[in-house]
Write a structure and sequence with these properties.
Layout lengths: L1 E2 L1 H7 L4 H8 L3 H8 L7 H10 L4 H4 E2 L7
Antiparallel strand pairs: 1-2
Helix pairs in contact: 2-3
Length: 68
Amino acid sequence: MKTRIKEFRARHDLTQEALANLVGVRRETIVFLEKGKYNPSLKLAYRIARELDTTIDELFIFENSDLE
């Protein structure tokens, strides 16, 4: 899974720490999400998308291999 969190976070001039605080997780969670090393819950994905004024589909990019 790839994400565009870093790109959208930059558009909103948010640090990883600031985004983490907004969505109620640790900064490390945002780091792992941006690196594609953590699969968020649907609730967390929604919270992040909402804070970045986008949709889950725009923020998270799934490939067929991710679904296997």
